[in-house]
C-alpha cells in the first residue's frame, strides 16, 4: 500500500498521509514518498493550492512511528530526523499556498507538518500538540522554531515544555490554527477557503507568499525591497492585463498563471 495518496482536482492538489492503521505515523518509507510527491508539486505550474490531510477519521498524524523507532539504531534515528526536517522545510518553501486539513489527532511530527503549512483548518472534536518532551525528546522537525514564530516565545515554551494536548477550541485561542469547524464541514470549509485563493492570480499568490515569508526574517528595509522585487515580477504577466480588462468589462478574470 502506498503511504501517500495523491489526487489533483483542477488546480487543487490533495496529499493524504495514508497509514490509517498506524494513525498516519511517519515511518521512513512515508517520509521518502512524501518528499517525492512534494518535489513534483513544487515544479508543477498547474497546481495553485495544496491541501495536506490524513486517511481515516482518527488522526491527521500522531508523528513518528514509535514502533519503527524502537527497532532503529541511533544512526538510523538521526537519518529519520534529518529526513523529516528536510521534507517539512520543502513543504514550508513550496511556492503554492498550503493548507493542513486536520481531520484528527495531530501530535509531534504531525503537528510539525501542520506548522510547516501556511494555514491549518481543524475538526472541532480533536486534539493536537507538540508532545515530544513527554517522550524525553524534543520537537525535531521544526517545532521549536516554527511554533514561537507563529504564537510567540512564551506560549510556545509553555506548550512544548508541558507537552500539553490542546482541544481544537483551545488551539484556536492560542493562535495555532486558522479555523475550527464541525467535523462534517471540514472538507467543505477547506475547499471554500482554497477557492478564495484559487480565484486570485496564481503568480500573485506565489509572489505574495514569497514576500511575506522572506520579509518576516529580515529587517524592514530589506523586507520592503523583497516586496518591491516580488511586485515587479507580476507587472509583465498576462494575468495582470487580464485582471485590468476584466475589471473594465465588469466580469470575473480568467487567470492562466502566465
Automatic annotation (TrEMBL):
Q: What is the lineage of its organism?
A: Bacteria, Bacillati, Bacillota, Bacilli, Bacillales
Stretches assigned to coiled coil: none
This protein is called Putative enoyl-CoA hydratase echA8
GO molecular function annotation: hydro-lyase activity
Gene designation? echA8_3
Assigned protein family: Belongs to the enoyl-CoA hydratase/isomerase family.
Q: List the PROSITE patterns.
A: ENOYL_COA_HYDRATASE
According to its UniProt entry, one GO biological process term is:
fatty acid beta-oxidation
Species the sequence originates in: Planococcus massiliensis
> What keywords does the record list, in alphabetical order?
Lyase
